[in-house]
Amino acid sequence: xxxxxxxxxxxxxxxxxxxxxxxxxxxxxxxxxxxxxxxxxxxxxxxxxxxxxxxxxxxxxxxxxxxxxxxxxxxxxxxxxxxxxxxxxxxxxxxxxxxxxxxxxxxxxxxxxxxxxxxxxxxxxxxxxxxxxxxxxxxxxxxxxxxxxxxxxxxxxxxxxxxxxxxxxxxxxxxxxxxxxxxxxxxxxxxxxxxxxxxxxxxxxxxxxxxxxxxxxxxxxxxxxxxxxxxxxxxxxxxxxxxxxxxxxxxxxxxxxxxxxxxxxxxxxxxxxxxxxxxxxxxxxxxxxxxxxxxxxxxxxxxxxxxxxxxxxxxxxxxxxxxxxxxxxxxxxxxxxxxxxxxxxxxxxxxxxxxxxxxxxxxxxxxxxxxxxxxxxxxxxxxxxxxxxxxxxxxxxxxxxxxxxxxxxxxxxxxxxxxxxxxxxxxxxxxxxxxxxxxxxxxxxxxxxxxxxxxxxxxxxxxxxxxxxxxxxxxxxxxxxxxxxxxxxxxxxxxxxxxxxxxxxxxxxxxxxxxxxxxxxxxxxxxxxxxxxxxxxxxxxxxxxxxxxxxxxxxxxxxxxxxxxxxxxxxxxxxxxxxxxxxxxxxxxxxxxxxxxxxxxxxxxxxxxxxxxxxxxxxxxxxxxxxxxxxxxxxxxxxxxxxxxxxxxxxxxxxxxxxxxxxxxxxxxxxxxxxxxxxxxxxxxxxxxxxxxxxxxxxxxxxxxxxxxxxxxxxxxxxxxxxxxxxxxxxxxxxxxxxxxxxxxxxxxxxxxxxxxxxxxxxxxxxxxxxxxxxxxxxxxxxxxxxxxxxxxxxxxxxxxxxxxxxxxxxxxxxxxxxxxxxxxxxxxxxxxxxxxxxxxxxxxxxxxxxxxxxxxxxxxxxxxxxxxxxxxxxxxxxxxxxxxxxxxxxxxxxxxxxxxxxxxxxxxxxxxxxxxxxxxxxxx
Length: 925
Fold this sequence. Notes:
Elements: H1 2-22, E1 26-33, E2 40-42, E3 48-55, E4 62-70, H2 73-77, E5 84-85, E6 89-90, E7 97-98, E8 109-118, E9 130-134, E10 148-149, E11 157-161, E12 179-187, E13 191-201, E14 203-208, E15 211-212, E16 216-217, E17 228-235, E18 243-252, E19 266-269, E20 274-283, E21 288-292, E22 298-301, E23 304-308, E24 312-316, E25 335-336, E26 338-339, E27 345-348, E28 354-360, E29 364-367, E30 373-390, E31 396-402, E32 404-405, E33 411-412, E34 421-425, E35 432-434, E36 441-449, E37 452-453, E38 464-475, E39 481-485, H3 488-503, H4 522-526, H5 528-534, H6 538-551, H7 576-579, H8 581-593, H9 597-616, H10 645-666, H11 670-691, E40 692-693, E41 698-699, H12 704-713, H13 721-734, H14 746-755, H15 759-766, H16 774-779, H17 805-813, E42 816-818, E43 827-830, E44 840-847, E45 850-859, E46 862-869, E47 874-879, E48 887-889, E49 892-893, E50 900-906, E51 909-914, E52 917-924
Parallel strand pairs: 2-9, 17-27, 24-34, 37-38, 43-47
Antiparallel strand pairs: 1-3, 3-7, 4-5, 4-6, 4-8, 8-9, 10-20, 10-26, 11-19, 12-18, 12-22, 13-17, 13-20, 14-15, 14-18, 16-28, 20-21, 22-25, 23-24, 28-38, 29-30, 30-35, 30-36, 30-38, 31-34, 31-36, 32-33, 39-44, 40-41, 42-43, 44-45, 45-46, 46-52, 47-51, 48-49, 48-52, 50-51
Helix pairs in contact: 5-17, 6-8, 9-10, 10-11, 10-12, 12-13, 12-14
GO biological process, one term: carbohydrate metabolic process
GO molecular function: alpha-L-rhamnosidase activity
Domain Bacterial alpha-L-rhamnosidase N-terminal: 189-357
């Protein structure tokens, strides 16, 4: 009997082991369509599918995939992919696989799943089902919906700068009332699906049965409103109730209409605020219903009595219409909406929405010399406030946000746009809670006038503030990178830059969150790698590139801001180092994310821009524009002081030509490959004739920017390269390791030093508090990156244009980059730069293939490096030794490992190639 039991146990154990071994050790996760997890409002008829793979074993490579798409979850689950079955496709590509199925229908949810095979022919289980929902693919999908407004359009104005006093209208323009709309309707059947497609210009808040739909802020995103307007898609299936329902919409101005009052950086008015909406309901019985915006909607003035993206927001709570968002409200005294004569192209908003990303508490509250209360949030950030207040009806208070304080502790808006304020009129019942809806600012402090904090003496019976909270608003792009090291200063610098980046991620990449809020496009490419290490910017950059395309002039010029709401003057309207973002950012986006569609779509317009630059060139030299903006010279920062604008402009022109040659090759345009290759040679020859002094081996005025941009772009003859490096190093060292390069040049300083093995010098330049730079800003109280290296108070104190060090923190100290021939981090390079007093560092980046990790430590006995490489990708690792015998992986000598390929020795480092998986390398001293 005992032997029989042992036999049964053996058979049972064998069965479990056999079953486990039959289960694949890999699976599919993070399914994406058009770069989003479950997108709503997809407009392309050929969406692209991406996924990531989890694999327990090393060296996973996908050999094939199969995608199935159905128009119901039941069909997908039951093996009936009635929309598309790709079949088994032999491919290692797990990103941007195009849909090739039946024609997609508007406003329809599709269900899809994927499975993959490894290079051994083993098959994964199916992924979990995911969805994507189409938008309104045809103009007639909007049905009978109309643009509606409360007031007829008056004078339309585009692009008057606030300092151009003579051009300003004599009587105020843009002074429209802020409307709120409502519409009751009935639902009498069981609902299968219901979607709302809505656009409100400038911005809207949508309510259904008394609750706000979604958690977005400042929908819809900014566009060139005379060319196209975004609409936003919401799934409201679970929000509708049987029988009676009511829709409510409130509108603000945004960049669509700017009231000519308080502060405005520029004056734009496309007309009165407007709304367009269609609610599409599909019932279980197959029938459908549409609710559309038309003149049957009711409209009245909202309690928002002033709305300006530049000047602030006022709210009169005594004008609230209690219950207006509820069924049965008596709106007989409301007016019927006007149908507006407005016919822009409607485009689905596919960038991530802005959201309230963080609540920031007050760290200190005190009374200033004027008797007003100062609330200090301890952090300079983009956003709004949330007010909790009680008091008597019709009492008023004013809140003045500011990033700095004057010497008398009053709000200092000198450099951030003055006046900007929030004014609130109380309705007078218990605790009132309010936050602005259609504006925001960059601030750390709020000066409160006409109210006191709870618990303080209140002899005048002013309103009492029971709570004031800061609400940080930002684009809701997912975080993609993390960084930490043993040096506290570099962690603080990372945080300093990050706050500036987050504060300027709106529906465009703004320069600052207060004074301008404009998309100065040079930041788009110079800060692109830094941004993309930290956040997933794939969808955002599609919009940025399109904004530049829509702003391009008939002559081919790409303006310095996009969308171009105003034509600046005096070099600000057209600068080559700015406009070239159209070409450079498009190329960088392709390298990072692997999507070539923007290159294909906009290539003709890129050629047009190159032709425009050629028309401005004299013997291939372009010498106009702002140059190395805000470099450190003898004068107040502004236009380049240490480097000729012809050098940076022409070098950028050359860089464009080299990129255009690569794009032409990618797009199989052989004539253009030859054309731009020849142009690059000609520009380089002219550049060296104009700017290189062969007797001194120097370029231009021998500035840090001049030498670095020459090195980065490969403009120097190889014979003189070492001399140029020496010139750069000498200039930095003689200045006690301080920087001089500005907005254009500093990224190239870092890149030139890093690629030439001089990261130790980068460390020395940026580990200091006593010279202008990141440490200087921190020492002077900055909590977000400032506009000037010197942290001057007369310019913005929340700018991200100088945050280039973020790229080096990840790519240098962390060591995470991709190899030169790689696309979308298919082949990663891990090469940590061990510099200064840094004894450990960790960095991660969520690539299109999965999470890359690099973590290293300096130990007494040697150097340790932990590496994680995502499945279906590979990596080249550089380790600090010439002797492979000194290296182990989890204790196993490298030459004994079948998982590792030895590639040789490069710059005194051992170079190896590995597949996906986790590795622990140790290099003995």
